[in-house]
């Protein structure tokens, strides 16, 4: 039954698209689409002219039927066209919307039922019912708002804008990279060079920090724990982040606190998500920002009166 219904749709699409061969395709078993040829003959895909003239794939036929927007049915004089079917499928999950040619018969039957029930409701006078009119007005407001937002806000967000936002996001992630380091703080460059010479000779960094460092971390071997670039003075951060784990600075580092010898114990960094993974989220963020700006401008120009009851509720 399902196969016959699909064949009916394909036949309709084929007539409109001028693809007579699609009718035969609908009744071809998938396993028989490319049967083995007689011995000595090439397979169909090896010949550019293997497909009969005028035959089109289902996707092409559906594209053509969408352009034509054919009349599919009338319900008490009210037309149902292909675009009505497509629109009725918008609320369905993607896996169903992507195979509309399969669920077309069910969509058409559902739409006929909806039109019949609506017709019966109008015959009963519900079109003039106060509750119905109020909900229709609310739906109209929501629909107008949705389309207006898409045209005035969402459509203004270009790919270049999203890419720039992503680059800023990736840079922010990179800025959160951390190193765990130790340091030996000394009064003079000479003392710092002497500490480096001791390290070159094989001294243990933590023990040397306990012996010589003048900083408050000396008792724990100069351990500064993990920190980001922004947590340290620029000169110290630049030197620390230039080192790989296990390396120590080969030249003293000068800051306002004195002369440092730095050793990096570990590095850790969060990898930024890919552009395509972040694209929808970034677009949504930008849309909210543009919408907030737009609403602020509307509120500045609008006359909004809050009555005592509303003010008390706030």
Task: Explain what you see.
The protein is of the alpha+beta class and 314 residues long. Among the domains are: 2-29 and 53-132, no CATH class; 177-268, Chitinase A, domain 3. Helices cover 54% and strands 12% of the residues. The strands form two sheets. The protein has a four-stranded antiparallel beta sheet with strand order 4-3-6-5, sandwiched between helices. A two-stranded antiparallel sheet has the order 1-2. The radius of gyration is 36 Å and the shape is elongated.
Q: What is the helix tally?
A: 13
Radius of gyration: 36 Å
Distance between the termini: 60 Å
Q: Specify the helix fraction band.
A: 40-55%
Rough shape?
Answer: elongated
Q: What ranges have pLDDT less than 50 throughout 5 or more consecutive residues?
A: 1-56
Name the helix and strand elements from N-terminus to C-terminus, one letter apiece: HHHEEHHHHHEHHEHEEHH
Number of strands: 6
Strand content: 5-15%
Largest sheet: 4 strands, antiparallel
Task: List the SSEs and their pairings.
Layout lengths: L1 H16 L3 H6 L31 H11 L2 E5 L2 E4 H7 L5 H4 L2 H24 L6 H23 L6 H17 L2 E9 L2 H12 L4 H8 L10 E5 L6 H8 L11 E3 L2 E11 L6 H27 L6 H6 L1
Antiparallel strand pairs: 1-2, 3-4, 3-6, 5-6
List the main descriptive attributes of the protein structure presented here.
disordered N terminus; four-stranded antiparallel β-sheet; Chitinase A, domain 3; alpha+beta
Task: Write a compact overview of the structure shown.
By secondary structure, the chain is α+β, with helices and mostly antiparallel strands.
